[in-house]
Amino acid sequence: MGCSPVITLAAFLVAGYFVSVARGSGEAKILLESVDNNTIYKLNEDILGKISELQRPIRVIAAVGNSRVGKSTTLNLISHIWNGKNETSAVEKIFKTGHSHDAVTCNVWAYIIKPRNEIIGNIVLLDVEGTDLGDDRVTDRLSTFTAMLSSALNVFALNVVGNSDIGFLYRIARLCDLVFKDKYVLPNFPKLRIVLRSELDPPSDEEISDEIFKRGREKALIILKYFPRSTIEVTHIPTVNGNRPLEDQKKLSKSDWGVFQNLTKDLQNSPEKRSFEGSPIDGTSFKQLAEDVVEAMNSDDSWRDFGDVYATLERDICRRAYEKHIRPVVRQSSKAMGDKMIDALDKFKKECVLEDEITKTKEELKVTYQEKRDQEEEDRRREEEEGRRREEEKRRRKEEEENKWEPYSSYAKYIAAIALGAFAFSDEDLKHNITTLPHSEYNDIGLRGVCWNWNESAKKSFGLTGAGCGVIAQEVRMVYPWAVLEGKDGYLRVHYDMLREMIYVVCNKRLSLFV
Ligand SMILES: Nc1nc2c(ncn2[C@@H]2O[C@H](COP(=O)(O)OP(=O)(O)O)[C@@H](O)[C@H]2O)c(=O)[nH]1
Ligand SMILES: [Mg+2]
To answer: Which of 89, 330, 335, 468 is the most exposed, fewest CB within 10 Å of its CB?
Structure first.
């Protein structure tokens, strides 16, 4: 059985009167349990669902180690301090602690601390039954699951780091060596902290590391690979005399209280949970990871598929990052795409770390942007051509109707001006009700995009009526005089094709920067 009543080390654990503590609404929930006579592992959908709603950053702080070394009690204190409770209020018992010889923490328990500030973000505390209790295979798997899901792995030990603790570290390292093979997963591996409970004068941090690697002997090499000596941190928490002193703040000395405060601070600075490739993990990814790990645990050839679990997870993180940051951008016009795609790619890269996915996405943005530009350019040309043709047709008919008596030559003079090239009427003096467009492609070359109504002069002189959009010839002439032609009638025309050519060049330049 996973939690058989085994009498263990803790000489200081004296059963006594019940210390009353304030019970808050929050209590830890079972996250993973072994069922069907320990043949199957089952996740609790209730707490998993709540975790899946968490935003990143998430720090997953786990306590593993032998039973009765104060793991649950310490987690309760950490939560107490983390929640900003003061030194005098009673410690809420979110994880069950044992006052008898029976182990109370069976299976894996989880508790969520909601963020008090955005940088630290969400915290998930994980507590697991002692590695020295019950069926080794079961406790080992529960602890391995806990370690794999954690970002800060706290191994609790009483007086010395014992063989079972070293064995546990070895099994985790060995498993990772098998499933990750030659992959370099170290930077995002859970950060190891030894929490040493002792009444004795604590050894130095170096002595503790030496001890692990000396006693680990041939195991040491592989443990070192995943937990290099320089990355291991050590916290000493003295065992405190008295009856359940850790559950009642008033019984703790100032220095003992300070030790717990420091531990909490250190854990607040621990790295956020990332996949081994480096993608930050949010609640949805945590849920997926937990489900996939459990599926691997339950498979016949257990743990064999474990490597695939992480590969799938990375792809899924990239897929979701694409939906969140890239998809909305590729749906927009080329102008909006041009403004947003560098920023979107940066955000995408912060979440997705797979090189091939990043290259693919970058290429897609580039190609889509170019295609959109070409298509929009084509549509615009066609539309303007059509508009000009209609305008011309309308004006010509009107002229024929109204001015049949006018000599043909006067009518021909402005037809000729338009027919000369792609010059189109754009003189300010022919327009009224001019409004500036908030966004226009002309902005790219420093011009104002406007819409207008043709005025009386436009109607009288050229039969232009209704509304139009484009630029003001006088403004163009100040910047690009070569793109403006003054007709014999004194009115200015703009060579729209020239302007479009310039816009095209500017946008291509922007695209080359993106590459
Ligand atoms: N007197 C004393 N009791 C402690 C100390 N640390 C833990 N305990 C008690 O030891 C018991 C087991 O602690 P618990 O946190 O449940 O251990 P776990 O099995 O590692 O989770 C509880 O009754 C705690 O109150 C300590 O420093 N001094
Ligand atoms: Mg416990």
So the answer is: 89
Q: Which residues of the chain have pLDDT under 50?
A: 1-25, 104, 405-421
CB 52 within 8 A of CB 281: no
The range of the structural domain enclosing residue 463 comes to 421-515
pLDDT at 96: 85
Position 115 scores a pLDDT of: 79
Q: Quick check: 496 and 470 in contact, CB under 8 A?
A: yes
Joined together, the tokens standing for residue 143 give: 């602890």
Q: Domains in the chain: how many in total?
A: 2
pLDDT tens profile 2-20: 343 333 323 232 222 222 2
Among 298, 315, 338, give the residue marking a domain's end.
298
Residues in contact with ligand 1 (CB, 6 Å cut-off): 10, 12-13, 67-73, 97-99, 105, 130, 239-240, 242, 244-247
Using CA atoms, how far apart are residues 198 and 9, in angstroms rounded to an integer? Answer: 12
Ligand 1 nearest-atom number relative to CA 243: 1
Q: What is the pLDDT of residue 412?
A: 38
Q: Which of 14, 73, 95, 128 to mutate to test the pocket of ligand 1 (most atoms within 8 A of CB)?
A: 73
